[in-house]
Design goal:
Shape: globular
Order of helices and strands: EHEEEEEEH
Structural class: alpha/beta
Helix content: 10-25%
Strand order of the largest sheet: 4-5-6-7
Distance between the termini: 32 Å
CATH topology: Deoxyribonuclease I, Chain A
Radius of gyration: 15 Å
CATH architecture: 4-Layer Sandwich
Low-confidence stretches: none
Number of domains: 1
Number of strands: 7
CATH class: Alpha Beta
């Protein structure tokens, strides 16, 4: 079974909620899964909203980097992770060792890394370490 996913970096869900509701109402169909980063609701809250008809299990994750906000679910189609890395937090590829051995992985993420290859004048260590 295919799963449709929508990712949204809210940058404060309260400020953008009317705009987001309008966006959803204009869609031809609603996604099965919605991953939201940067909600500003509370620290470490990175929700994954799942349609009731989608059978899923929550994946318990304890990232090695305590600054990362990671939530995850497993569906019959894929393991889906919602990841938010706060600005100025550097991480390495080893941070994501928990993904090893998984198949059909989807990462919905805001890494706040600034790769020069994308034309950014900003830089941080995360872009060079993983």
């Amino acid at each position: 079974m295919a799963v449709t996913i929508l990712q949204w970096n809210a940058r404060s869900i309260f400020k953008k909620l009317p705009e987001f509701k309008k966006y959803l109402s204009d869609l031809a169909f609603l996604p099965d899964v919605i991953c939201i980063q940067e909600t500003h609701l509370s620290p470490k809250y990175n929700p994954i909203c799942v349609r009731q008809s989608v059978v899923h299990l929550e994946i318990d994750i304890s990232p090695s980097d305590s600054h990362l906000e990671i939530s995850g679910i497993k569906t019959s189609a894929a393991s889906i992770f919602n990841i938010y890395n706060p600005p100025r937090n550097n991480f390495t590829i080893e941070t994501f060792d928990f993904l090893s051995g998984l198949k059909n992985v989807v990462l919905c993420r805001e890494f706040n890394s600034y790769p020069g290859m994308w034309g950014s004048q900003l830089s941080n260590q995360s872009r060079t370490k993983g």
